[in-house]
Amino acid sequence: MRTIKELKNEYLKGNNITEIMRQERSIEHNTAEIIEVAYELQTGSYQKKWAQKELATFYNDFTKEIADTILKMCTPSSIMEAGIGEATTFVKVLKYLNLDNLKAFGFDISWSRVLFAKQLIEKEKLQNVKLCTGNLYDIPFLNDSIDLVYTNHSIEPNGGGEELILKELLRITKKYLILFEPDYENADEESKKRMDSLGYAKGLKKILHNLGCNIIYQGKFKNSINDKNPTQIIVVKKDFIENENKDFFACPRYKTRLIKDKKENLYFSDEALSIYPIVKGIPCLRKENAVLTTKYEVD
To answer: Quick check: helix, strand or coil at residue 252?
Structure first.
């Protein structure tokens, strides 16, 4: 199998990294490893793309449609983009929401993409935004901790893992889950063939229905980025008990509260007996980031 350096060279040649890695492993669907490597190699490309002046009008319309969809559902006190990437969508959505005292959160499987997201958020002077690394299959947030959670094509590359991801998103959602994801079922045959070749997710509405979810809206997203990959909107409403969340981050293994050790710049999980490092201000909260220790104590 190719090394990461060799895969980087393939990426620079314009080759599809996920396809190469799937072929090498003789598998049909993307694994977390494949998605992480692909996203890691793409880091910086999204901010570069959306900085182009000729895309400014579409970029504004695209992010405003997401914000308008959110505000039609509720006025959240906390919000998350699950799979935040470089935050190119999130920063604009937050500006269009324009809500005082809104607590905002985001995570991504790629540490470098989170770093770029952090830098963009700081550049735009947005407040009350917390980021971390995380995996959609083990989201490092507490149950019912975020008023409104949305995804923007982050479930997309995880074909085969749709149900597990949806269960995790529903677990952390307090009021509303909004999916902006590929509309495989209503795409034309050429688009379906393309999505299948890339290992894209499908059948989200059916899975949500089987999970007993209250789907209150499904419709077409007007400002799809790629006509060959049309976006649909699915909104799920959850029954909730009103409570004020003071804690948000959770151990990705046990989904229990993490203790922050400010002196040592890390988080500690009492249940996992593990520490999770904070690198350049970014909590690294994937299972793979855990350092097992039965001797650590937070002062």
So the answer is: coil
